[in-house]
Amino acid sequence: MISRRDTSETVEFRAEENVLVYLGDNDAIEQPETFQFCPLGVQLYTCSAVAECELLECKFTIPDAEGNNEEVQCTGLVVQCSEPLNGDTLYRVWVKFLDLPTETVQRIQQVTQNQRFICPFCENF
């Protein structure tokens, strides 16, 4: 879940068979294959624009060392929001994680290493 600091609107993403994003009370948005999640941040798609340089409260769940789900909370910064292209209706939004603990960064790296979510930069490390 990613929520704007100054509103009650939230973005929540769930990785099941398909990744779904919820923005506030809007219907779920199924993410295209270009959705990315890695230690640096998340690239997702929404039906509405998100202001660049906006700080977000980010919450998501990842497995801990014992395989139990652990909720992680951090601050994210919207670094880019692209307008829909070629008749698409979704905005592409990049969020940079700002304050993840080193241990969490390492766990995200391990979890996403074998997933299709990892970004090309992290994939090379």
Could you characterize what this model shows?
The protein has one domain (2-123): Thrombin, subunit H (Beta Barrel). The longest helix is centred in the last third of the chain and has 12 residues, at 102-113. The chain is mainly beta and 125 residues long. The model is unreliable at 1-10 (pLDDT under 50). It contains two helices and nine strands, in the order βββββββββαα.
Q: Outline of this structure?
A:
With 125 residues, this protein is mainly beta.
- Number of domain units: 1
Could you name the CATH topology? Thrombin, subunit H
The number of distinct β-strands equals 9
Described by strand count, sense and barrel closure, the largest sheet is: 9 strands, antiparallel
